[in-house]
Design a protein that fits this description.
Elements: E1 3-4, H1 5-11, E2 28-34, E3 58-66, E4 72-73, H2 77-80, H3 89-94, E5 104-110, H4 117-123, H5 126-143, E6 147-151, H6 165-180, E7 186-192, H7 195-201, H8 204-210, E8 213-217, H9 251-260, E9 268-273, E10 275-281, E11 293-296, E12 308-310, H10 311-320, E13 324-328, E14 333-338, E15 341-344, H11 348-360, E16 365-369, H12 386-395, H13 406-415, E17 436-437, E18 454-458, E19 465-470, E20 473-478, E21 484-486, E22 491-493
Parallel strand pairs: 1-17, 2-3, 2-16, 3-5, 5-6, 6-7, 7-8, 8-9, 9-16
Antiparallel strand pairs: 3-4, 10-11, 10-12, 10-15, 13-14, 14-15, 18-19, 19-20, 21-22
């Protein structure tokens, strides 16, 4: 399908009214994808082609690693890259922007399995920090991402080093931001949520200066590591939370803490889980929140991790198994039990309440972990992505994050037969299965959109990167790997054919 941006703008669905968006009103839907789900079996298998690029404002590719030297590391070359017969997952992921011109893609470095030690070593050394900045810039340029997400879990924790991670993290973010500035790359982070964790790891006021989006992981509050059952991502404190510390372990208290410590409201994004935490009850007859647990509950049939189960896995099971579902009126979350199995999870109702909270409190939006755990096939209720769709309906008043949908694209495709406005040229992007079209005016020098700019502008630093300008707002694009944006033909073309 060919995307006619001129038609989309005429329909009033591509950009906010006036071509700009107030930072305090803009809402993000940040979607992490666990790329390893491509190896899952049957209905759990999740590839890039299952991603709906219109339900997220930012897509985050997880994960890449960090070497002790400061180099960024590709963890699964066969999946991620195209060399040596690889699957080319990164290229496919970034090609989703050819369907949705407002979508941003971000490369995530870190994660729980990557650990904390290498981050600490790199952040403590000026030479290693600069090597990491250079490596990150080169990686983003090569693969066509829009930015980097740091998922260091966690500064000053999970290692035996004596470095000052809290301040070194600030320095690392500042140097990354400086290195990204010429290219306007985004810098985001997934952060430990609770006051107990955050106070050890972060100078919140300082890190907020350099981060464009702060993804607060307000989940894993309770799990099989606890001696009793608990809600994975509670909204408010429960009657069992009698200590000051335990009363801070809920979404409302977490967000209030981050705001009080200096996090800008518009950068703070509420993290919600698309998975549940499972327990094995000590006594099947005692199944309320806070009941004694023997340890992890059954694993999801696709994710195969004891103590955890995706929403898609759980809702499938509930169709054939006799689970009893309850609603915690205080913590505003569901839980369920069957025999000695007990699970705390989020459903459309609880997810909707959290999205409404983000909206009512003028927060940046909602982050989801992670796409492959939603009911992406629509097996349970007929609607694909019921959790993600709920977030979109609430944050955007019944529309998607950009107003774009498949039906709008179909309208655009049908309109291609109509004459294009005088003075404009329409041309496809070479080297993609999904060509892209749009308004093309005489390119401006400098690569910066002014309020008068309308059309495509090539980046002055990177010939493989270009922008679509509309009344001062820039939407960035990257040509497929090894192609350059040709100002004469207004296509992504082979380097030898481009004057760059």
């Amino acid at each position: 399908m060919i995307l006619n941006i001129y038609v989309l703008i005429a329909l009033g669905v591509l950009l906010p009214k006036g071509g700009t968006a107030d930072a305090h009103n803009r809402k993000y839907v940040v979607c992490y994808q666990g790329t390893w789900a491509t190896y899952r079996q049957s209905n759990g298998k999740y590839d890039v082609n299952y991603i709906d690029p219109f339900l997220c404002t930012h897509l985050v590719y997880t994960f890449f690693g960090i070497e002790e030297s400061g180099e960024l590391r590709v963890i699964d070359p066969t999946l991620d890259l195209e060399e040596n017969g690889g699957h080319g997952n990164i290229r496919k992921f970034n090609a989703l922007k050819l369907q949705n011109p407002t979508l941003k893609t971000i490369a995530a470095v870190g994660g729980w399995n990557e650990g904390s030690r290498n981050f600490s070593i790199v952040a403590n050394d000026p030479e290693r920090r600069q090597r990491f900045v250079r490596s990150a810039v080169q990686f983003i340029q090569r693969h066509g991402f829009n930015g980097l997400d740091l998922d260091w879990e966690y500064p000053n924790q999970r290692h035996d080093l004596t470095f000052d991670d809290k301040n070194n993290f600030v320095t690392l973010l500042r140097e990354l931001k400086e290195g990204f500035k010429p290219f306007q790359y985004l810098l985001t982070a997934a952060v430990g949520a609770s006051p107990a964790t955050a106070s050890i790891s972060y100078n919140i006021t300082e890190i907020s200066k350099y981060l464009d989006i702060i993804n607060v992981m307000a989940y894993d509050i309770h799990g099989a590591w606890d001696p009793a059952t608990g809600i994975n991502a509670p909204f408010y404190a429960s009657k069992n939370d009698i200590t000051e510390g335990s009363r801070q372990l809920n979404l409302d208290a977490i967000i209030k803490y981050w705001l009080a410590q200096g996090a800008p409201r518009e950068k703070l994004v509420v993290g919600v889980p698309f998975y549940g935490r499972t327990f094995t009850l000590a006594d099947a007859a005692q199944h309320s929140v806070g009941s004694s647990s023997l340890g992890p509950g059954t694993a999801g049939q696709y994710s195969l991790e004891p103590g955890s189960i995706g929403y898609n896995e759980l809702c499938e099971r509930m169709r054939t198994e006799q689970w009893q579902v309850e609603w915690d009126e205080v913590q505003l979350a569901p839980y369920a039990y069957m025999g000695q199995q007990w699970v705390s999870f989020d459903n459309p109702r609880s997810i909707g309440l959290k999205a409404q909270y983000a909206k009512d409190n003028n927060l940046g939006g909602v982050m989801v972990w992670s796409l492959e755990s939603d009911d992406f096939r629509g097996i349970c209720g007929g609607e694909k992505y019921p959790l993600l769709q709920t977030i979109n309906r609430i944050l955007f008043d019944g529309r998607t994050a950009t107003g774009l949908t498949q039906s709008v694209l179909n309208m655009a495709a049908e309109s291609i037969q109509r004459p294009v406005a005088p003075g404009y040229a329409v041309a496809p992007v070479v080297g993609s299965h999904t060509p892209q079209q749009g308004i093309v005016l005489d390119p401006r020098d400098g690569g910066v959109c002014t309020s008068q700019d309308n059309g495509y502008v090539r980046d002055k630093h990177d010939c493989g990167k270009f922008y679509y300008c509309n009344q001062g707002m820039a939407h960035s694009f990257n040509c497929p790997h090894n192609l350059k944006f040709d100002l004469e033909s207004t296509t992504c073309n082979y380097p030898q054919s481009v004057d760059c």
